[in-house]
Specification:
Keywords: Calcium, Disulfide bond, Glycoprotein, Heme, Hydrogen peroxide, Iron, Metal-binding, Oxidoreductase, Peroxidase, Secreted, Signal. This protein is mostly helical. It folds into two domains: 125 residues, Orthogonal Bundle (Peroxidase, domain 1); 130 residues, Peroxidase, domain 2. It contains 15 helices and two strands. A two-stranded antiparallel sheet has the order 1-2.
Length: 331
Amino acid sequence: MVNNKMMSWMRNSNKNAAVLLLIFLFLSSSTSTCKAHLSSHFYDHTCPNALSTIRSAIRTAVSRERRMAASLVRLHFHDCFVQGCDASILLKDSPSITSERNAFQNKDSVRGFEVIDSAKAEVEKTCPGVVSCADILALAARDASVAVGGPSWSVKLGRRDSTTASLALAEAQLPRATDDLPKLLSNFASKGLTAEDMVALSGAHTLGQARCITFRGRIYNSESDIDAGFATTRQRRCPATGGDQNLAALDLVTPNSFDNKYFKNLIQKKGLLASDQILFSGGSTDSVVSKYSQSPATFKSDFASAMIKMSEIDLLTGSAGQIRRICSAVN
């Protein structure tokens, strides 16, 4: 038979176990609230044609101008690094908004707004007020990658749009072309991204173009580690003075293909931006660059994984924020 002392111990143990279970459930729910609202099937019933409509809009835009693929990936990146992936970058100046578009890292360079607006307009025709601009940005980046031979990935949906923007945060938190390695690592770490994530995401520079003003200091610096022949080639389109907006492909070898030539370029000291070349300059990320230069499959896989992580930074879900009717303005 069980004596009274044993019965008392068992009752207390059950109470303690119940308390511990409640604490565990509370912590679990509080740390995964945002993720719980996300699902790759989020619009299956409320707007079943949303994904195909957005995909069609992106394919059309990229077929018109292949550079647009890089621009859409960058637009999503520049959104997620400021206030999280909330479509704040799409907001124009208004009496209540100071647009992030005017930040130093965005002004005259971030593009693709009209493509997102077009996709949003098409979705609104059949499902008004259902699909967020933030989700469209996330899907557009994935669909743009696929359109130029890059990897695909599953995009979890359910983001909502912010009603604010922050020019100050954009200028403080978006990477700059002149950032050194410690600053870049710290910046990405603050967003929950590893050094490997950072190098993989930088591989998006296998596509796209940069303005002369962003790389002039590198190609005319006699103390730079840049390949001399590469520097001379770049100087043809980027004079020592003037021509600030002249464009040059970030990857001179295969500028319109999503491949791993970007990393091969870095090993040959042919990175166009200082913030590119710093990834292979005797520092802690050299080994990651080497790995991706040797295995395009590994790069594509890691790029997809890093894009998923980035696309889930500080989300608005549930009843937070709103679903904007027009991406450039709050409702």
